[in-house]
Design a protein that fits this description.
The complex is a heterodimer of chains A (235) and B (462).
Chain A lengths: L3 E12 L2 E13 L4 E5 L6 H8 L7 E6 L2 E2 L5 H11 E4 L11 H11 L4 H14 L15 H13 L5 E5 L7 H18 L2 E5 L3 H6 L2 E6 L2 E7 L9
Parallel strand pairs in A: 3-8, 3-9, 6-7, 7-8
Antiparallel strand pairs in A: 1-2, 1-4, 4-5, 9-10
Helix pairs in contact in A: 3-4, 3-5, 4-5, 5-6
Chain B lengths: L2 H11 L1 H40 L2 E5 L2 H5 L11 H10 L7 E16 L4 E10 L1 H7 L23 E5 H6 L27 H10 L10 E7 L5 E12 L4 H4 L2 E5 H9 L8 E6 L5 H15 L5 E5 H4 L1 H39 L1 H9 L4 H35 L4 E2 L8 E2 L8 H27 L3 H6 L2
Parallel strand pairs in B: 3-7, 4-6
Antiparallel strand pairs in B: 1-8, 1-9, 2-3, 2-5, 2-8, 4-7, 5-6, 10-11
Helix pairs in contact in B: 1-14, 2-12, 2-14, 2-15, 12-15, 14-15
Classes of the chains: A alpha/beta (235), B alpha+beta (462).
Bound molecules: adenosine-5'-triphosphate and magnesium ion.
The site of magnesium ion has 4 residues of chain A, from helix 1.
Chain lengths: 235, 462
């Protein structure tokens, strides 16, 4: 079973009286345990597609199935709970909760999912260890570098062991050296945790790591390519 | 990492804004509490004053209160010793009863005939010892300014008059008024101002040369049979009654003296029996029982019971006036606090739009977002309330120990400015509950707006 399937999905934004088609007729399967990259020029619809997959936006047409569930018509609370259980997010601007320490940021989704304190502690310790931030866990986000913040964000996205992690240009705000380290980390954790990653990125370094690259232009899929690095993926 | 700790941290993150909001709440709450405390003190003070003077209930002949005025003879209660005895012995009333005492109200003309001056007065015949005990009533623990009547233990012909009466009668020695013109020696030693027959009556009443002759006056009244009667009285004090209209006519005398003046050798009567209870709250019970007692044993006497509110309409009016002022101030402050907190929360929502989007994406429900902001506001409200109460209690303590005073309308002496904040749990709880409600109300809309943000729009917010 594919963690994500889209069938004839379309999304149109309305700007005043003008309809802006952001996505049209998207049919797509994301493979389990794969490192999938959405590639395309600015404005092509990558973020829109990720939002639909992440169940934080709803399509105008078509069906979206995530982790075996039709999500396009789920009520808001059910969808929130669904996201808490099945989907992790990594953002371009890290989006850590500023008043929570690195450790608490990672712990937050676990608390939200109602995981018991002891279990939470073990999981957070392991994740902080995996992103090599155990010695910075008491720091607030403002006291961390960009790369460190994104590592916290990665640990947070993985905390509840979701089926799917979505990342919208996770390296765009990082220098290329840090970006490369972040990609390597994500790649490693994706394999260790056997989770499906979907990215949007302009970054050639990200493309280089992909199992699969989906090309988008003007809201349509123009091609799907197996990535150069297919060793770890199981398409 | 509960919602509360998250809320607290967000408040601490914006220290300046939180402090400003807190300050607005504290100032508002202090204003409400201090005014409320002052209002309580005035109301309790007024109640205490009236209870000391009129008692809680009065038994009068039906119609006397509205129509009787200064006509004691038409509305006298002849059977009053039995009635008093009955009240004092009643097993239900006795435990509630502080004092039951008779009084006789009469009108007449007081004259300092030696100086050729006179004026009409409203005299009250009373039992000074009872009245002085009534003045000790202080169930509400206010600072009482009542001074005992000097008539207690004084001879039967002694009276106390209002300073206005004393002035009119030129009894300047009793007054602290340098511009008072003392009685000049009358043109004719016998006092030509007095009709001969009344002067004759007066001299009959006089039992030899009076001590302190400078303070002697005569009181002329109509007896029950309509004939004039005169008593020679010894003024031992002039007291300021505060309200000029009262001060100009006031006279207090011994009940026996008043009765002799009106009823002569006939059966002495009274116009009212004053009943003072231990607690104001006992009025309904006492009234009900008393009503039954009157209906059973004193049916033919045609008596009625007047309660505290009827006897002192100004008490209720004072209450209503203070209440309306309090409500107005509370409303004003409530609105200000409402907008201050509302503004703070709205700003917080706008500032944290991206954070809201992130939390929602991570799976926090709308209600969770709402709770977050409501908790934040409630924390502010709780902190503001706690600080406000603390400040109000401290300021109240300072005011109560500062000795500040003022003279309220209708009072003849300065009143200590006292505020009852700590002693008034109703006020404290009410104000704090009000403050928290306003907080909740003002946070509701911003919190709702935050909860309804479209996630992708919130995340796009730079
Ligand atoms: N809220 C919106 N209202 C109107 N139009 C929108 C909205 N969001 C996106 N669009 C439009 O939809 C199209 C796709 O936008 P999207 O953000 O998905 O592009 P993208 O591929 O992520 O671009 P970039 O690489 O610059 O991030 C664009 O034409 C954009 O203008
Ligand atoms: Mg984008």
């Amino acid at each position: 079973m594919h963690p994500v399937s889209l069938r004839q999905v379309g999304k149109t934004y309305r700007l005043g009286s003008v309809d802006v088609p952001a996505l049209s007729d998207i049919t797509l399967d994301i493979h389990q345990g794969a490192f999938t990259v959405l590639a395309g020029p600015s404005g092509s619809g990558k973020t829109t597609l990720l939002n639909l997959i992440g169940c934080i936006d709803t399509p105008d047409q078509g069906e979206i199935t995530v982790a075996g569930q039709q999500v396009q018509s789920m009520p808001d609370d059910a969808l929130s709970d669904f996201r808490a259980r099945h989907i992790g997010f990594i953002f371009q601007n890290f989006n850590l909760i500023p008043v929570l320490s690195a450790r608490e940021n990672v712990e937050y989704p676990l608390a939200l999912a109602g995981v018991a304190a002891g279990e939470r502690r073990r999981r957070v310790d392991a994740l902080l260890d995996a992103v090599e931030l155990s010695d910075r866990q008491r720091n607030l986000p403002a006291q961390l570098s960009g790369g460190q913040r994104q590592r916290v964000a990665i640990a947070r996205a993985l905390a509840t062991a979701p089926r799917l992690v979505l990342a919208d240009e996770p390296t765009a705000n990082l220098d290329s050296h840090t970006g490369a380290a972040i990609i390597a980390l994500m790649r490693r954790l994706q394999r260790e945790e056997d989770v499906s990653f979907v990215f949007s990125s302009h970054d050639p370094q990200v493309h280089a790591e992909a199992d699969e690259i989906i090309f988008i232009r003007d809201g349509r899929i123009t091609g799907i390519e197996a990535g150069r690095n297919t060793a770890g993926g199981r398409p | 990492m509960s919602t509360w700790s998250l809320a607290l941290r967000n408040l601490l993150r914006n220290r300046r804004r939180s402090l400003t909001t807190l300050l607005a709440m504290v100032v508002g709450l202090v204003a409400i509490l201090l005014f409320g405390g002052y209002r309580s003190n005035i109301i309790y003070g007024t109640q205490t004053g009236f209870v000391q003077q009129t008692g809680h209930l009065q038994i009068q002949r039906r119609g006397y209160f509205l129509d009787g005025g200064d006509n004691p003879t038409a509305y006298g209660i002849a059977d009053y010793p039995r009635l008093l005895e009955r009240i004092r012995q009643d097993p239900v009333l006795a435990p509630m009863l502080a004092i039951a005492t008779p009084t006789l109200q009469l009108g007449g003309i007081a004259g300092n005939f030696a100086a050729g001056v006179s004026r009409s007065v409203m005299a009250t015949g009373l039992i000074p010892e009872d009245r002085n005990r009534m003045m000790e009533w202080n169930d509400l623990g206010v600072v009482s300014y009542a001074r005992p009547l000097p008539l207690a233990g004084a001879p039967g012909d002694t009276v106390v008059i209002g300073t206005g009466v004393a002035r009119k009668l030129r009894l300047c020695a009793l007054l602290d008024a340098p511009d008072c013109q003392p009685a000049s020696p009358p043109a004719t030693p016998d006092g030509t101002a007095l009709p001969d027959d009344i002067a004759a009556l007066s001299s009959l009443e006089k039992a030899g040369p009076a001590p302190g002759a400078g303070h002697r006056i005569e009181m002329l009244a109509a007896t029950a049979r309509g004939a004039p009667n005169v008593a020679s009285l010894n003024v031992i004090q002039a007291s300021n009654m505060g309200i000029k209209a009262l001060d100009d006519v006031y006279m207090a005398m011994h009940l026996t003296q008043a009765q002799r003046l009106i009823f002569g050798a006939g059966t002495p009567q009274v116009t009212a029996i004053l009943i003072q209870l231990h607690h104001t709250g006992q009025i309904p019970a006492a009234r009900e029982h008393l009503g039954r007692l009157l209906a059973e044993d004193f049916k033919e006497a045609d008596l009625e019971i007047l309660d505290f509110d009827t006897l002192n309409p100004i008490y209720r009016q004072t209450n209503e006036f203070m209440d309306s002022m309090f409500s107005f101030i509370a409303l004003l402050i409530g609105v200000i606090v409402l907008f201050t907190i509302g503004n703070t929360m709205s700003t917080a929502v706008v500032e944290r739009t991206t954070e809201i989007g992130t939390l929602r994406a991570m799976g926090l429900r709308r209600a969770g977002i709402r709770r977050l902001f409501v908790c934040e506001a409630l924390l502010l409200g709780a902190a503001g309330s706690a600080l406000g109460v603390l400040c109000a209690v401290l300021i109240a303590y300072a005011i109560n120990h500062s000795g500040w005073s003022w003279t309220p309308p209708g009072y003849s002496y300065a009143y200590l400015i006292l505020v009852r904040v700590g002693e008034d749990p109703g006020l404290l709880i009410g104000s704090v509950a009000g403050m928290l409600s306003v907080t909740l109300l003002s946070a509701w809309w911003p919190a709702r707006r935050a909860a309804r943000l479209v996630i992708v729009d919130a995340l796009r917010h730079a």
